[in-house]
Amino acid sequence: MELKQIYFDQLNLDQKEITLIGRVRSNRQGKAVSFMILNDGTYLHDLQVVYKTDTKGYDDALVSRVASIVEVTGTLILTPGKQQPFELQATEIVLLDQAVEEYPLQKKEHSPEFLREIAHLRARTKTFNSIFRIRSTASFAIHKFFQEEGYVYANTPIITSNDAEGAGEQFVVTVNEDKDYENDFFGKKAALTVSGQLNAEPFAQAFKKVYTFGPTFRAENSHTNRHASEFWMMEPEIAFAELKDGIKVMEDMLKSVVQYVMEKNMEELKFLESNLEEGLIEKITGIVNSNFKVNTYEEVLEILKEAIKNGHVFEENNIYFGLDLGTEHERYICEVVNKCPTFVTNYPKEIKAFYMKQNDDGKTVAAVDLLVPGIGELCGGSQREDDSQKIIKRCEEMGIDYKDLDWYIKLRDYGYYKSTGFGLGFERLLMYITGASNIRDVMLYPRTPKNLLF
Ligand code: 4AD
Ligand code: MG
Question: Which fold would CATH assign to domain 3-97?
Fold first, then answer.
């Protein structure tokens, strides 16, 4: 039987015989009775096993070390009022595999840094078990939301010849060492994708609503707690839709995902609330119930200038049109001023990607970033420029080589009317939901500059 089933069916299982295979979390010999705490990975909470000298296999049970695997048979007894809701009074314990004494994850508390060095074992701790279970649920919730809304899931390629964001942050894919790309595997320079967007747009023209959800890669030398070199992005793309439609999808999707995680993983959330972030559940409940705010970039500048006038000091205190907002500014807007997730729209074209729809004012683009308290930027998106000539001009102004983007630009000439999409940084969403303060702690095996373990 699995532990989860025992928890969910405990009332019916009272006084019944049960057999379970699990890993020893702790094992303590007492005078009259001994206690073994087991977990089989199917549920957050553990099973307390009570055994005595007359339990078959007593001698093996006694020497079972932390992390060993045992099979226990016994009678389940409800123990209302005690710390755990029930215990298993063992009639037989079989030591299936003994772990070594030097098991790195003994019971004491470990630092997140140490646990990252044993990323292959840390999912056995309750904190990481909770985080990765929520990761799985949230991933499913994203698919569930988009599938129920009629979107087609598009698996865009990982190896690509385009730099979608034009930011020059790609990892090159090569079978040679000599940078002779013409004679390389693909006969041209290839790289890992930074975003599936450019490949998704044509599919939105074919299906109206599509989404991608997969790994993306950025050779960005950012040493922050919110940047990883490999991360998962989810990118919907919607044809015949404007920026405001995209904003609505963002809000609806986030609320739906958070709500689904709350439905499925409340035990994990409670555990994380008591271990990682006080007030976590109230915070994410707030997301579901609040109305997100919308500010234009220029409104944000005014708010920041006003704050400075009133004595607030930012590290970057020079606020001007064209400033790429820093995390401190973003967090000030959503944490201090609005106190809720905030969409910032219509950024200066100079600080945004070449494909964004140019507004009539000649200086801004129809872009949107979603800022959330504690994180900063969670999603970034835009309405796409639908005039091929304007895209070409923008590429030229920005020094972007567009010869490999011919297909993308020409798409505009084959019947193309308004397309909007955005990218959600999946790990940032998980940081927000789980209370993890470092992106490395919501990824199974994080990849960051100078860090490629496992
Ligand atoms: O804002 P970004 O760069 O937008 C795009 O890539 C667009 N093509 C999306 C679109 O319109 N379809 O990235 C989207 C999101 C960011 O808001 C952020 O949450 C996340 O991806 N992100 C990262 N997450 C972790 N580590 C990094 N290095 C990240 N870079 C971006
Ligand atoms: Mg962005």
Answer: OB fold (Dihydrolipoamide Acetyltransferase, E2P) (2.40.50)
